[in-house]
Amino acid sequence: MNLVGALAAVAARGTGRGIRLFRGGAEAERLPFDELHLDAGRLACGLLERGVTAGERVAITLPTSTDFARAFFGVLAAGAVPVPLPAPQRFAPLDVYVRRTALALRQSRITRILADRALTGVLEPLLADAGGEFTVLDVACCSAASPVYTEAAGDDPALVQYTSGTGSDPRGVLLSHANLLANTAAIGKGLGVTDADVCCSWLPLFHDMGLIGTFLSAVFSGIDTILQPPEDFLRDPGRWLGIIAGQRVTITSAPNSGYLHALRRTPAERVRELDLSAWRLALNGAEAVDPGLLRRFSAHFAPAGFRPTAFLPVYGLAEGTLAVTFPPLDRPVRTVRVRRDLLGEGVVSLLDEAAAAEGAREVASVGFSVAGTEVRLVGADGPVPAERPALGEIQIRGDSVTAGYEHHEAATRAVVHEGGWVSTGDLGFRHDGELYIVGRTKEMVIVFGRNHYAGDIESIAAAVPEVAGGGVLAAAVPSPEGERLVLFVETAATAAEAREHLVGQVRQAVSGALGVTPHEVVLLRKGRLPRTSSGKLVRYGSEELHRQYGTPDPLTPPGAPGPPGAPGAATPG
């Protein structure tokens, strides 16, 4: 079985279900699964007529649309391999986009890019100096009259999924038809999907959680799949909630920041207008899960019928196709509290609730391995015994796990180990058999000989009022006196007094919780922090960020001279 065959089986049911695109809160496009299968075959024929060959990598640079679905399955039906890539983002730096896109194009040896009419005229000149020759095709003009479906085996390549690139340049995870079918089946089983379910997603389709966790999983389950452009959600998350209420949506997926955005932008009077009683699963993944946010969200939307048991903290990554662990359904989010100071040293010390007020970190369970996937923890002395709560790096293997990266043998050797185990770079521990994630191996900041998780520092600083949308990046920046802890903080505050107050609040919050004081707090305008195409913070390159924006001088008043483009920095204390 391959992906096109799986789509054909769904199309043959003739249910009338399919993909529905909403713009501005209203349905704008509809594509039933049987029409999608036919359109994919017609596009495949057109691509073959244009010289596309079996196994060729074809980039797809399309916005969220029914055309993306046609392009994805059309490339597969031609026997080629789709490589979803982001389109240029409005207001995002073009040089970063070109560099990252060119890297993917060269690494996957891509010569053809599928886009729409609007993007075709933009991409050709933009990528002209990227190295290599590229043909940008308007997907709407590539279809032929008759469908063609090229056969593919289960172990043939089916997708190159580029990682988000938070700690290094993005790498292309090579996934087979069998990998994708195994993982989407595990997702359907783990979520208990039935014909009565309706899925809704605003996540980008070039990102694994949007592409595999919602789009492909919903398609292969044969349920109605409602898509919303990410920019619609960011502009007004009330539209997303309105779709959930109006269409009786049962399943959604979003990162922690997405639920926070919806919470902040939905006043109580709007909540009372919604009916969220059909919403049975709200998956939370791709970012660190904040248990406090889940409680606040549940309380805020309770008048609309939202149930706390709907929240499902999940764990996954591109190297595992996507899903790795799910908690059991229909139960409250399970959390434990651990000593924050010892966690940085690799020690898991559980605290009871009465003793957990000071110096504790609350961590949410992400549950148990999904079907067909194994998880183990590996410490400095080898695999960590499953029966004790000890910190280790998470490694995975199974039917959904990649065999390596696209044309990158060194990176593959670094993560693929004997017996098929693959390193994830994530750190976690088990308690009562369930997995808890605490950070990443490359996100450790060492201050005065003590280890601190960058994400831990950032979550504390992000809770300070006037910090814009959780925009905090913690980094250890080299200096003649050794590494110094620097926090880059996004804020909308412009008055010098307000900015100085914010710096003090951030320093006090981090010092009070962790016993370490940031050497420098650099204030940035919202949007200045480098992020991946899926919105995650980019953790490498902090030295360059500090050279650009950091300053040892006192707080620069608005309008005063400073580094080019710098909005002002705080004084070290």
Average pLDDT:
86
Domain unit count: 3
Query: What's the story with the biggest beta sheet?
Result: 10 strands, antiparallel
Instruction: Give me the CATH superfamily of the largest domain.
Output: ANL, N-terminal domain
Domain AMP-dependent synthetase/ligase: 26-405
Biased composition (Pro residues): 554-566
Region (Disordered): 547-573
GO cellular component, one term: plasma membrane
Descriptive report:
The chain has three domains: 3-312, Rossmann fold, CATH 3.40.50; 334-395 and 409-440, Roll (Luciferase, domain 3); 448-549, GMP Synthetase, Chain A, domain 3, CATH 3.30.300.30. The chain is 31% helix and 26% strand. The strands form six sheets. Strands 14, 15, 16, 17, 18, 19, 20, 21, 22 and 23 form a ten-stranded antiparallel β-sheet that branches. A seven-stranded mixed β-sheet has the order 2-1-10-9-11-12-13, sandwiched between helices. A four-stranded parallel β-sheet has the order 4-3-5-6. The protein contains 17 helices and 28 strands. Residues 552-573 have low confidence and may be disordered. Helix 1 crosses helix 2 and helix 10 (256-264) packs parallel to helix 12 (291-301). With 573 residues, it is of the alpha/beta class.
Short description:
Belongs to the ATP-dependent AMP-binding enzyme family. This protein has 573 residues and is of the alpha/beta class. The strands form six sheets. Strands 14, 15, 16, 17, 18, 19, 20, 21, 22 and 23 form a ten-stranded antiparallel sheet that branches.
